[in-house]
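One thing: can you check what follows?
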Amino acid sequence: MSEVRKKEHERFDVLMRRFNRDIQQSGLLTIVKKKRYFAEKVSRTARRSAAIRKAERKAIKRGY
């Protein structure tokens, strides 16, 4: 994780520019963009138990 500390009498825009440069050089932004929409595969048993819970909630909501 990148950490940028404010120097004495440093303006915010200079601090922000330094932070952005640090992030670009570390390559962290490209990694985050790649992983942003990636969803891990869920196992069959987890999908099945989620479907059962959803069906039970529907049944309760409908009053069965």
About this structure: The first helix runs from residue 12 to 26. The helical segments are 12-26, 28-35, 44-62. The chain has a mean pLDDT of 91.
